[in-house]
Amino acid sequence: MEIIKQGISIDKPDGTHVDYFIFPEYEIHYNELQPRTIQQWHHHNVIEETIFVISGKIEIHWQVDKILFSEQVSNGDVIRVENTPHTLMNNTDCCAKFIVFRFVPTGKDNRELIKNDKHLDII
Questions:
Q1: What digits encode the pLDDT tens for the residues 48-77?
Q2: How many angstroms separate the first and last alpha carbons of the chain?
């Protein structure tokens, strides 16, 4: 077991604070998107991102086949970004907080393994 109390902390020029926790096969980011902040449009060629909103409201914009979409998400919502070009905006007066899980998918369906790989221990 490993307990990590602090990641690589970065304050980006766009108003986003990020704590990066980088592991050999995946990465976790804790993000704080300040009020009235817009991130740059971006995408990843290989990495897939999944975003879990902890608090606040975020407007996500994305593009598919040159068509723009947007939706507001809030605490408890999950966004599976995949490799889609996207940007996040906080159009509120409160800080929005979310966690990003980044990984390189292998194409293998591991849902059954993930759901059932729990073994009870007697200590």
A1: 999 999 999 999 999 999 999 999 999 999
A2: 17
Residue 97, domain member (yes or no): yes
44, 74 Cβ separation under 8 angstroms: no
pLDDT at residue 120, rounded to an integer = 82
Nearest CA among 97, 81, 90, 88 for reference residue 44: 81
CATH label of the domain that carries residue 21: 2.60.120.10
Instruction: Give the model confidence (pLDDT) of 94-114 as tens digits.
Output: 999 999 999 998 889 988 988
Using an 8 Å Cβ cutoff, are 89 and 98 in contact? Answer: no
Instruction: Please state the domain count of the chain.
Output: 1
Instruction: Let me know if residue 92 belongs to a domain.
Output: yes
Instruction: Note whether 32 and 61 are within 8 A (CB).
Output: no
In a domain, 121, yes or no: no
